[in-house]
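Researcher: Before we compare anything, I want clean individual predictions. No alignment, no superposition, just each chain on its own. First chain goes here; please echo the sequence and then give the structure tokens.
Model: Echoing the first chain and its structure:
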Amino acid sequence: MNEEILQNLNEKLDVALDRGKKFLEDEEIQQRIEDAKLVAEDTVRKHPVKSVLIGLAVGFLIGKALSGDDD
């Protein structure tokens, strides 16, 4: 690859990483993440079997989608 292209990609990646870092450091976002975590934990505690089955199904579907096999 051309060095200029690599330099441009590195600069864009640095900008994207900085934006992501600032986004995750936002207190409102941190609170929303914590709230979502608590809701998910409560749901799993109330419905453990369903949660495991849903997790397995989602994992299976993601695995199929990423495997690239055209069976």
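Researcher: Okay. Second chain, same rules.
Model: Second chain and its structure:
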Amino acid sequence: MKYTRNAHKKMEQNTVSARVTLNEYTNKVLGVLKAKYGLKDKSEAINKFIEIYGEDVVENEASDEYLKKVIEITDRHMKKYGKRKMSLVELDRLTE
């Protein structure tokens, strides 16, 4: 799942203050991110970095809207097809 604006808004609402000690390289990377994206401070740069790379480590939680949509699609599929199985010929036709 890609990072959504709703998830970003949710993150902004639940903020945590932290005092951090940065090594020189980390400070440089945050400075570059800050300049590249026109951010106010290094706190925003850290948040931007996490927005870009955080999903590689921790998956975002699915929003209620997304879950409702998946359930709706699944229900429509089950009503249309039930527990019908696909033959190998049908699968080959679809994947060729």
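Researcher: What stands out in the second chain?
Model: The mean pLDDT is 86. Additionally, The radius of gyration is 21 Å.
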